[in-house]
Structures
1.
Amino acid sequence: MDLVNSSLTDISNAVKDQKISAEEVASFFFKRMKDLNQSLNAVVFEDENFLSAARVIDSKISKGEELGPLAGVPFGIKDMLCVRNLPATAGSKILQGFVPPYDSTAVAKLKNAGAVILGKLNQDEFAMGSSNETSIQGAVQNPWNNKYVPGGSSGGSAAAQASRMMAATLGTDTGGSIRQPASFCGVVGVKPTYGRVSRYGVIAYASSLDQVGPMTSTVEDAALTLEVISGFDAKDSTSSQRAVPEWTRALSKDLKGIRVGLLKECMRSSLHKDVEKSVENSIDELKKMGAEIVEVSLPLIEYAVPVYYLIAACEASSNLARYDGVKYGYRSDFKNLSSVDLETFYSQTRGEGFGAEVKRRIMMGTHALSSGYYDSYYLKAGKVRRLFVNQYKDAFKQCDVILSPVTAAPAFKLGERIADPLQMYLNDIFTTSTNLAGLPGMSVPFSLSTDGLPIGIQITANHFDEQRMLNVAWALESVAPAKGKRPHVF
Amino acid sequence: MSSNDFEAVIGIEIHVQLNTKSKIFSSDSTTFDSGDNENTSPVSVGMPGTLPVLNKKAVEFAVKTGLALGCNVSQKSVFARKNYFYPDLPKGYQISQHDKPICEGGSVSFVVDGVKKTVSITRAHMEEDAGKSLHHGDCTLINYNRAGIPLLEVVSGPDMHSPAEAAQYCRTVRQIVRYLEVCDGNMEEGSLRCDCNVSVKRKNESTLGTKVEIKNVNSFRFVEKAIEYEIERQIEVLERGESIIQETRLWDPDKNRTFTMRVKEDAQDYRYFPEPDLLPVTITQESIDKIRQHLPELPANRRERFKSDFGLSDHDADLLTSEREIADYFEETASACKNAKAAANWIMSELLRELNQGSKQIQESSLKPSDLGALIRLIDEGTISGKIAKTVFQEMWVTGKSPQEIVKEKGLVQITDPQVIEALVEQVLNENSQQVAAHKSGAKKNLFGYFVGAVMKASKGQANPDLVNKIIQEKLKS
């Protein structure tokens, strides 16, 4: 069986039909993962118990037990998500040695559906970064060109998926952390509607923005994975009670009557010529397939990055306060604890445990929340956020989905922007507004740049309308010039 | 200038521990005497990725309390994060309520030194408790069992002016939450903790003085003593021409004084912001009304009813309504014997004394109110004398038997047959002929009581005392 090129459903069916065992599938990918990871550095913790998990699937099959849609399908999980008995560090030294005794709900749902976890994937520290260069476990290489970043913060998931170390992966997206690396690495990445997927067990960066989503090789795989991990969770008060539709079964390339909104503001901004061309081509293809193209406007989009960085930093400054060296994770090596005062204990532990970018955001957030600044920063950012929601509401009166670039340019080189945080932040111009409005958005691979780097197209839909977003992406995928193109590691 | 020229201004924050079975944001148990860190889970120790889920019972208890304190209950209230670092605070922030608390604007009335006093309630908000740091020499251990226990912080207006008023306010709030059965009010276990805000100002001045907070006072007596000390201290400082430092102080019960915990300069900026992990708390007017309908009769109302329905004095009504269980016991006893005054007296004198001696609560009493009522009925019907009744009561207290049973078993029925008593009187007078002579001649006075005592003794206390008196008088006259 050509496992590397098989869909999740094909793998699962083959395992269920006993054409191949879950053990064989898992062993194949585990070996591939180990081999490829030596250069890519996408995997930070391997699950040495993957075989026993696979054997459980096989034994259930031999007993004739009913199995879920991901039976025997190997997954990689971003380190941001807790997987029981595997380390969870969120790419940070401060969580060194922490092993959660619980599964995040998304991972528990994967396991319930029969998935086999192979390992934890690299990421920017606490998901703060757009290049996967802020991880304590080191930078990840882009499988298409090892001089380039894979994007971030889910850079490990994107690189692992692009090189097909496993059948599918999970990432998290707070301001574009799934969609941007998906675009840079040529994989499908979905950020669902806020509330679709439980955040329980997902290490918090910015609680009101964080969402878990699939990063896969195809739209169909993404739809299936999303279907498995979505749904109300009593452990997450912000998860939605809405029923989860059968997206995979309802996938359709029929775009007749679908109104695709082209974001006016993005075409005005200075796009890389390859990205511009890619957007234009995608519009032409959609027209050919019967979609109606309308121009829509989000005049406030230029404020998305500052508003996002305020809200995210404020929430992060509080979310990361629990990492204090008292209960778990890293504690500074105090020779004689009894002679250390509390403030030194904290500042030394946190000073050593957090990286520069995380500290920068904790400081920004702490400042913006402090008395005298709260109204002009956090409160005002919240008001602008509501305006974003309203602008999208208006836009979705004119169209069903919005099409835009994911980023203004393809992947940049390792080390190119790490010293310039502002340049790095501007990467997120087209992705952050989706999170601020709580909308579903995804990146679907479309073309390759003249340098041979992947370029994705972003499709955003109205709240809980993942179906139309997936349909448009599925249609685009079928006509994408990059279809069938593989990075050099294949 | 004397201390009479000053006026104290006191406001109190009471942390009421709501006695739900599980914590406010997790399913951990709230049992008090569990082993160290036994009542914890990844959620309550703030492990990465865990999320709070609001306990609905805690909200119901908060609404109940708010209504009983006369507050407006908000249909929408918001949890906020109060950010500060301390090892016993697992997440680095406490989930509390800030600008949108669940209850606002109530009041509580009570009587101090015979004068009715009303104190306003500014607000009452829900929050989670922190863990407990245990300092052992040069190391500190933390027990997170308490982390996440639901609290309702009840904040009064700065309406009190004396230590006695403050203590009585605290007692009244405790009595109310105990009536509601939302808090056991156990101050030793920390189920109720008082923070006292005290300032003094010269009487002729209108602006308030600088306020000092005395934190975590754990008994009403200490509330009174700490405030008393603090008022005197502040007046002394002002009289020296110095000014009060805004600070947080603690009460040292051994040294009978307050001392500095931290001064305002160190005070934290808590950087409150709405808790993004929880939705706003919404309660429909319908469910608020439903909770209101099911509120029990509150102590103040019950006290008035006891006075008007049973003719009890202020003192007796106070005592008998001090605890809901005592009031219930009284009402059951009174209805069983149809003699409220006697029921009140028996409970206040005999029963409460026995309970105190055995350090028991009234609900633990082996003596049932219906039996106490039956005992009173036996007296009122003349079956036993009041004196015998005390013996029967003792027996009931020890054995838990009914009074009828005891009276029957021990043959304690009162002798009311005049012929039997007459025979006893004659026997006693015959045996004491010298005294009879002395009485009649007037040589000795006050022998009458002696004869009565001797007759009662001869009857083993069972003779009806009224008849004994009457018959002796008749016999001595002849």
Note: The longest strand of chain A covers residues 441-448.
2.
Amino acid sequence: MKKIIWITLIVVILGMQLVPVNRPENSDDLSKDLIANNQIPENISNILKNSCYDCHSNQTNYPWYAYVAPVSFLVVNDVNEGREELNFSEWENRDKSKKAKALDEMAEEVEEGEMPMEIYLITHSNAKLSDKQRKEFAEWAENYAESLFE
Amino acid sequence: MKKLVLFSIIAFGGLIFMNFSRIDSKSVNPKNDKYEVPENVQAIIDRSCFGCHNSDSKNEKGKKKLSWDLMKKGYKTYKVIAKLSEIEEVLQKNEMPPEKFLAKYPDKKLSDEEREIMIKWAQDMVKKMSE
């Protein structure tokens, strides 16, 4: 009996690998990129690259398990959602008011600890932000947003 | 001689005054003065938004997302513009006022025309304040 359960499980997991996964593609195009086109202090650009860019840019570093179902489904879903909500590779396509809106939300969500997401941090411990980093990031986002209107 | 002393005092006072007004105008971005709410927009805000979205609100989430009283005075320029941009988006998607709230207070629902007025106002204000 136990054997049957195991075999079924293995068959299901193997079968899952055959489900086509539409992994969001990466691109080296930096012509509209936030970091490439603006003077951003190093501590902030490091935070962006280490803790945000995997989901919020077209430069996702896919780990090996991103190629194995069912984890791949989760990764694909989160990257798609992240890029749709805010894509730093397309930053310069935003007008000033949309930049202000994004920066306002970034400051709030990072300071409140809502971003980066818990599930991402489980496997990306170097993306974890200290309270000090969160504060620095929020302050930068607010000042940078205000500087757009000076 | 008296005249000279008097003149010096006035000049000195003037310099101090100018200095103060300079500091004052620097601390608040003059773009904030461009924020205006016409009566018809204010009426919609008062009826359907202000109850949750003010800085004394008991609705913590509503207060945090947007406090209408701080739009006039309190928010920095970028924040006013960010909020206007968000207001436009939320109303385009018909997400506010929330369904649950409207089930209780159906009279606070926005008509299509009222939504249009709010969206147009938010768009115009973003443009005006970004200039």
Note: Confidence is low (pLDDT under 50) at residues 21-26 of chain B.
